[in-house]
Design goal:
835 residues, five-stranded mixed beta sheet, four-stranded antiparallel beta sheet, 3 helices, 39% strand, elongated, disordered N terminus
């Protein structure tokens, strides 16, 4: 009976960069869009666009039920705070220069009251944490407005649910409308009538709709009137209000649609508009301005003379068409750029991602254009120079999105890698954000250093650390980071990856290419999967649109082991690639793989791989992960992502016959994209979703949301740290978090509930796992060590006499075992893999 009980209570126990100066405009555009295109296609395939109504419904449901049905313990932030992520907006308190608010692309609003030394997250109860703009009420700075949604609309922008208002400096918030507009760009406050608000919105960019445009409220947001509608494919990307005469309002238009079948990024509605009656009626400004098809437009207004404005206009080729200035309130404009090559390349060929111009309030001949780097003119636009170190020096991160002057010499700059500050007028820069908003695609655990976590991050490479080094995480490798794999036998060897399957191996800091033998013409996923065999670390697998194997890693060559496993290149290369791979830890001849276009395959090595499609019975959706049981032969699990009208199911299935038939195990899980599945045993599973982490302890019949303090942020990866009894989550918004598994409970027998780590040894850890010959236990002095096979047979027993106990298991057969340690009233039960 003991064996039955403890098997149910097993202890849960890196490059290219998109800013290449030699690439064509087209390839740069493709590379910048790639991360969002990847997320977009994953959630929409095979539909043209994401069913946002379904997504919005689950966001609301998660927000309402988190405290009602969750593992009621907090997550711990492991970091990093020094690596950073994209910041869209910066707002300075009008009366206190040490109080600053910043808005992240996906991670919410952060506040400092000491000039950037320390930050705290505020507004974590927002349903959506993509931030477009932050505005203090200059008359009462305790009143703050936050506009949600990511205005830098890529393939899958992070959406919002309208405008939030705080009357206590950000301690509490109220949503005051414009939720249906989904992406806002700016909010402005009438200088003398604080209940009059102005808002620019881009609408839901996935489809043509009539919610886009300029909005005005005269009752503090209780009601909104759309006063400027440009068309069902265009919105307002910027606005300015004359503080001396608030009847004069300027707005910038932008044509933008993005779904799986259509991409509109320029148009004839990309114009500057002016109202002289408080935004009730509008005129299109034309004198001195281009009137052909244009892209995004950014505005700046002088705080000294509001009749002086600047506008940056992005061309059809996504470069700087011109930087225009008016000194007569918009009646006429002059292009300040007389040299057509002055800012060539400043925006990297994707100017729609930036479109920001700023002027120095203390010297308005000083104008800056925000792009890949920061470019500034000190002579009213005649000449331009770079005023940040080049992006590739990593002193100031690439891609600039907002900039504010605190004084003539003190400037703050928001980038894709955090917030920077100069106190000597561009001469030197300091990273001041210390904010955990890194966006992780994949995470890994170091088997030889329990509690050390490595992650591959969007635009911030591969990085390693934990809570003890919260603001000192180490940058391991550049580019867009993805999967890192540690060799479980050799502590000096690991593998890292950047976008599109550029894998390298690293031996004690020596890094070299690990793609020899893979056809460079293959179609690769943005997040190309590769795995290490559970049986031998020298055997690894990766997938393009075909499968490859290597048996002498890291110095050998990859060998092709399949034909095209996708539907073929029908809709474009991004839609037809291999997305996930898993091997069978009980049968080294079996491997499983899934594709972005809904195919699932079983490969059997019978003197050469034979492939069987096992997709029948599953939805036609992007396969996000596959897990294979380490205890039960022929059992595997599959997660998929996608939205569809009237589809109320999160796509989770189990097969008990190697994929011949499938069982839905979504249970009572809210419908939402499932990004990753992690299996502890046949009953205990965890999933990473767009709205947090969920767990089941009864094989999928019931699910609970894990933790009571994780906001509704996307989580892309989850792992179980058996050594420290923690669950590790890689979020795509707020860094890496861990959760104590002793807060999870398991039903072992009818009406008997045992804490999953009850009686576990304090500080116990063991490594490596998997292992081939030796196992090392720490803090286990005086414990009875027993190993059982999966049939319940005792195969090893001894009493540990030392605190660090190493013993041999070389005589055991390869496979899965259960380790039971007993000392007085303490007990610990853990899974072990013998190679």
């Amino acid at each position: 009976m003991l064996f039955i009980a403890f098997t149910l209570t097993l202890t849960i126990g890196c490059s290219e960069n998109k800013h290449s100066p030699t690439e064509s405009t087209t390839s740069k555009l493709d590379k910048l869009s790639a991360p969002n295109e990847h997320m977009w296609a994953q959630r929409a395939y095979p539909d043209a666009h994401v069913d946002f109504k379904a997504m919005n419904k689950v966001a609301q449901r998660v927000s309402e039920t988190t405290n009602q049905k969750s593992a009621d313990s907090p997550w711990t932030l492991e970091g990093p705070t020094n690596i950073g992520g994209r910041i869209n907006a910066v707002a300075l308190h009008p009366e206190d220069a040490n109080t600053i608010l910043v808005g992240a692309a996906a991670g919410g609003v952060f506040k400092t009251t000491d000039g950037g030394a320390n930050w705290e997250a505020i507004g974590d109860d927002f349903n959506y944490l993509a931030i477009a703009h932050i505005q203090f009420d200059l008359q009462d700075p305790d009143i703050v407005y936050v506009a949600t949604g990511d205005p830098n609309i890529s393939g899958l922008p992070h959406l919002g649910n309208g405008l939030y208002k705080s009357i206590d400096g950000g301690d509490s918030w109220t949503n005051i409308g414009l939720a249906e507009q989904r992406i806002m760009s700016k909010v402005a406050i009438h200088p003398t009538e604080p209940n009059t608000l102005f808002a620019g919105t881009m609408g839901l960019p996935f489809e043509r709709n009539e919610e886009r445009g300029f909005y005005k409220s005269i009752d503090g947001g209780a009601n909104w009137d759309q006063t400027l509608y440009l068309g069902d494919d265009a919105g307002i990307c910027d606005l300015k209000v004359n503080p001396q005469n608030p009847d004069i309002v300027f707005a910038a238009g932008w044509n933008r649609i993005r779904n799986n079948q259509e991409s509109v990024i320029t148009g004839t509605d990309a114009r500057i508009y002016r109202s002289t009656d408080g935004a009730l009626t509008w005129d299109t400004l034309t004198v001195g301005l281009p009137q052909d098809t244009l892209c995004r437009i950014g505005l700046e207004m002088s705080i000294n003379d509001p009749n002086t404005l600047w506008a940056i206009i992005i061309s059809q080729g996504f470069g700087v068409e011109g930087v225009y200035k008016t000194t007569d309130g918009g009646d006429s404009w002059t292009n300040l750029i007389t040299d057509p090559f002055a800012l060539e390349g400043a925006l990297g060929g994707f100017g729609w991602y930036f479109a920001k111009v700023r002027a120095n309030p203390w010297n308005e001949n000083e104008i800056s254009v925000l792009g890949v780097d920061l470019w500034t003119s000190f002579d009213n636009g005649e000449t331009w120079e770079m005023t940040t170190p080049p992006w590739w020096a990593y002193e100031v991160h690439a891609d600039k999105h907002d900039m504010i002057y605190l004084s003539d010499d003190v400037i703050m700059l928001a980038t894709d890698g955090g917030l920077y500050k100069t106190t000597d007028h561009f001469a030197t820069w300091t990273d001041i954000d210390n904010i955990p908003n890194t966006q992780f695609y994949r995470i890994a655990l170091d088997p030889f250093n329990p509690g050390v976590y490595t992650g591959g991050a969007q635009d911030n490479g591969t990085t390693t650390g934990n809570e003890s080094t919260l603001d000192e995480w180490v940058r391991d490798y550049g580019g867009d980071g993805f999967q890192c794999i540690y060799d479980y036998e050799d502590p000096s060897l690991r593998y890292m990856e950047t976008q599109y399957g550029n894998i390298v191996f690293d031996i004690d800091g020596f890094t070299d290419n690990f793609t020899f033998g893979i056809d460079p013409e293959d179609r690769n996923n943005w997040d190309t999967p590769y795995i290490m065999s559970s049986i031998s670390p020298q055997t690894m697998y990766t997938g393009t649109h075909r499968m490859y194997q290597i048996t002498d890693a890291p110095f050998g060559s990859w060998n092709l082991i399949s034909d095209d496993l996708t539907d073929g290149n029908i809709f474009g290369a991004n839609f037809h690639t291999i997305s996930t791979i898993a091997d069978d830890p009980l049968d080294e001849s079996l491997i499983y793989t899934g594709t972005t276009d809904g195919n699932l395959w079983k490969g059997e090595n019978v003197g050469g791989f034979e492939w069987t499609n096992i997709q029948a019975g599953l939805p036609d959706r992007w396969v996000t992960s596959i897990e294979v049981s380490s205890a039960t032969e022929n059992r595997l699990w599959v997660s998929q992502s996608g939205y569809k009208d009237n589809d109320e199911t999160a796509h989770l299935h189990r097969s008990d016959d190697a994929g011949q038939t499938w069982i839905d195990i979504s249970g009572d899980l809210p419908e939402q994209p499932v990004n990753h599945l992690e299996v502890v045993n046949d009953s205990i599973l965890f999933i990473a979703t767009d709205f947090g982490v969920y767990s089941t302890i009864n094989a999928g019949e019931n699910w609970i949301r894990v933790g009571n303090n994780m906001p509704t942020i996307p989580v892309f990866d989850v792992k179980v740290d058996t050594a420290l009894h923690t669950l590790v989550a890689g979020t795509f918004a707020r860094g890496i978090w861990t959760f104590p598994t002793d807060s999870l409970y398991i039903l072992t027998e009818p009406e008997i509930v045992i804490n999953i780590n009850e009686l576990a040894f304090s500080g116990l850890s063991f490594y490596p796992n998997p292992t081939q010959n030796f196992l090392t236990l720490k803090h286990a002095e005086g414990a009875l060590v027993q190993l059982f096979d999966l049939n319940g047979k005792l195969v090893h027993s001894h009493t540990s006499m030392t605190s660090e106990d190493q013993f041999s298991i070389a005589n055991l057969k390869s496979g899965k075992y259960v380790m039971l340690l007993t000392r007085d009233s303490e007990r610990s039960i853990q899974n072990l893999v013998k190679l």
